[in-house]
Each structure stands twice: as C-alpha cells, then as structure tokens.
Amino acid sequence: MKINGFKINITEEDLHHRVTEEVRQVILIDETSAAYQGLSEGDKKALKHLVNAAKIMNDVALEMDHPQNLVQKQALEVAAAESKYAADALQLFNMLNGVAGSNGIDKEPVEIFAGIHQFAGKNFYPTDMDEAEFQQIIGKMLDEGKIAEVKKILSARTMVRRNGDELKAIDYTEYFADEFSEIANELECAAHYTTDDLFKDYLGWQAQAFLQNNEEMDILADKHWAQMQETPLEFTVSRENYDDKMTPTLFSNQELCTRLNVHGIKPVPKDMLGVRVGIVNKEGTALLLKFKDEMLKLAALMPFADQYTQNVGKNKGLKQTMVDADIAALTGDYALCRGGITLAQNLPNNDKPALAHGGGRRNVYHRQVRASADKEKTQKILDALVIPELHQYYEEEADHLFTIGHENGHSLGPDSSYQTALGIYQHIIEEHKADMISATMMPEYVKAGIISEEQLKKIYTTWVVRRHFMIAFPNDMEAHRVADLIEYNFLKEYGAFWFDENKKLHIDFEKMKSGSRALLTEVIRVQLSKLPQTAKEFVERWTNWDEMNQYIADFKKNLGVKPYIEIVSYF
User: Fold this and answer.
1) 548-555 long-range contacts, Cβ below 8 Å, gap at least 24?
2) Model pLDDT, residue 340
3) What pTM was computed for the model?
4) Cα angle: 524, vertex 527, 530; to 5 degrees
5) What is the mean pLDDT of residues 304-321?
6) What percentage of the chain reaches a pLDDT higher than 70?
C-alpha cells in the first residue's frame, strides 16, 4: 500500500502485531480524575486552553523532526478511514510521533515508509547536506566575514535553509509564526481563567516569548517558570537539543572550533520543542522538597568540587523548584516515544541563557508515566535473573526515588561550558553523570533520614534490574541507554554486582556505594577534560556488550518486549 507515493515499509501482518502486541500504554488523566475534580472552575477552563496549546506544538515538533511528517500523517488520517492497514500505520506513526525512529531494540530505526529516512540534522538543516559540506559552508562564511549569520545558524532556536551556496537562519518565531501565534492566544486565554497570580504572570511572559524574535523573552519566561512552587497547574515548554546530531559535529573539527571561538561563537544544537500540561500533586511534591533540602550539602561532596563552578552552590544559593504532576498532555518532544518516555525533567538545561542570567531550575515528575510498569512481566524477570534474597528489594517506588536523585544531579557538577565542549558525547556523559550522582549521593539521604537503609538497598537493586538489564545494544542517539551500559560494565568489573553459574544477579551493597563514587569521579574527570577524544575513549572503554547482556536481552525479548509506547490522552 502506498501513501503519497511511498509504500508502507512494514508488512500488514507485522504492523498489526506491533500496534496490538508490542505496545505499552501510558494513560493520562481525564475529567473524572481526583486531580482534575479538585481544581477550581477557572483552572479547569485554563487547563483545556493549555492542552490546546500543547496540540498545536505537536505540529511544530513534527515539522522540526522531518520534512515529510505532516504530509504523511495527514495522508494516513485520510486513508485510515478506509483501510485497517493504514489505520495501523497511523497508530505506529503516532507512537513514534513521526515517520521514523528507534524502538530501543532494533539497531536500525523503524521506518514506516520505504524511501523515507531520518537525517542527522533532522529538518533543522537542509536534508541533503552532510557533515563535510556543513563544515565547509561554515568555514566559507567565516572567510567572507559573515559572522552574525554564522552565529544565528549555530543558535539553538533557528531553522537553517540553503541560500545559494551558503546557509541562512530563520528564527523559530518567524518560521513557526502562525503556530506560535495560535499557541500564544491559547496561553492568554488560560491566563485569563487561572486563579493563580504567579501562574498567570508566567503564561503572559511565555505568550510574549512566542511572539517576539527576542531571546530575552525566553529568558524572562524561563525565569518566571522556574520560580513556581505552589501553583495548581503545570505548563512546560520543553527545549532540549538531544536530537540534532549535525551541529555537534563541529566540535570534532578543531581548526573550525578555534575560528568560531575567536569570533565568540558557541555552537549550540537545535532545540526540539515539546509541551507538558499537568496538575500539581501536593503529596508527591512534599517528598521532592525533602530531597531538595540536601542539594547544597551534596554540591560540596562532589568530586573535584574546588576545581569548577558548581551549577548550584553556596556561592550562588539554590534556585530550584520541584513538583510532582498528574499529567494531562505530553506533546512534541515529549511524545517522541522512540525507545522510551520521559519520567521527569530538570529544566532549563545548562546551555540555556536563563541560567547565565541568574535564573533557576524546575524539576517536574510525571506520575502517570511511572505508573505504567508491567508488574507481571517484572516478576518473571526477577524469578529468572535475580537471586530470591534480592526480590524483596525490587520496588517501583525505588525507581522514582532514583529518578529524583538523577534529576537533582543535573543541577550539580561542572557548568555547561564543560559539557558542551564534549561535542557529540556531551549528552551521554551528562546523563551518565546524573545517574552516578544519584547512586553516589543516596547514602547521604540515608544519613539525613529521608530514606532508610532498607530503601537504599531497594534503590540499588531496582536500578540494576530496571536500567542495566537491557533489551538491546544502544545506538549512539540513546544517551540514557549508553549511560546504562557504561554503568553495567564498570560496576560489574568493580564487583558491585555479579551473576552466578545460574545467571542470577547478586549485589554487594557496600561496593555499590564505593563503586558509584569511583565511577562518578571518572565521569567528572571526563567533563573537566573538555576533550571530545577523552569522552570518546571513556565511552568506548565501558560500552562492551557481553554474553550476559545478550542472555538478558534474549530472555526479555522472549517474554514479549513492548518497545512501542502509546500515550492515551483524554483532553
């Protein structure tokens, strides 16, 4: 079957199996939920306008991801009314939120249509441009003194198109002017209805940021967003740059990097946009704030703490809000469920100017995402791969506690200049760093009385089973999964855990503590080097895929892995 002249790349039988048997649902809240029912009438109305904004943003992200996403989706929607084959293809498209993407298992991306492939620069850059031409054009433009345009091209907030034998940058607010105007209108309507003055103020700033080609407006919106602790609603514009694999290639060209440096140009990968809408959960938030209280103490305990400026530290004070949220919408970047889905986020990221201008951070946790685990399958994994004595220490809530430590970890350690200097390895190293801060600092939370020694054992056990029992060798775009494999290899070699002759997991909890500290020290050393080659050597050293990895992967696949995620929305 062809859609817009492109043949569906997966057989009808295989496609139907994927969308019925290989799907895990994440069910978001509806109007019957206690969270929604507890809102004022004004905030209920505001929530629906925020969801409308989120839906519009999804089309923006589709355009950023691939030039054929929108046209293929529209064609599938028409064809789906007459064809079950097309309906299944549309369902897979919606789960990937695009024409192609990783499913976290197969080495190659899943491609719904024959002849439609992913691009290193997504649709941020011309899709017919490779790395060599990109670097050649940037060098040529520098030769010709077109410094201001190069700076725009290498900004996080521009779409880049050809201009003869050069490139030109178009700011998001211009490229997506129609969509951003609609989003701003929805935010202004939500601001009219919401009962919370601080939230109302933030929405006003965020609406203006969509309407003006002015980075200062993004800074102001981010600052206001990061200050909200007691507001009833959550609205997040996510701007993360993990998807752009073109811009970071500049860091491998030392001569070009030196030239850019001379002109004060700092290449920043493009931001993929997404929107999260939720209702703040007070009980869950209270737990997060207990962890927050320890962060300044933890900053002082970081390896080499005296050798760099901390993201947070006593010299700055802690500017960090944290909320647990019942989720009503996840769109755009949040809905790019390609091998996983976000449990929580710590924003703005280190590359964002709001942090350099005195702004703070905000952590938001997704209650509905973490509630979607398959408990029956987990028990089968425990029975087959973990000694019985450790079963008592596996607990889904422990994974949430680890995630809290991970997200807080992004606010600790060397600042953004150390991270971005690692080029294409920066995200792998940063996610790995956050993991190791969580694992290393958990004993400090025991000392503070926030968790018990028993909970610490649960955190370590659940971490290994959930994160290090992998289903496939990760590709280099899966920063979190590559980090998991690094941790598996290091801690296994350290003796923190091992497998017996029956291929069952054992854990030495004391070595988990010391091993985590040792690995955190190594990853901070990598960041401090500011050398992509050092990061490359570190990643290659610790990403071996051994027989036990394959045994675990095969076992999990035989259980029936569900690599595709369907976000079920009601608003």
Assistant:
1) 548/499, 548/503, 549/470, 549/473, 549/485, 549/488, 551/503, 552/385, 552/469, 552/470, 553/470, 553/471, 553/472, 555/381, 555/384, 555/385
2) 85
3) 0.88
4) 150
5) 73
6) 99
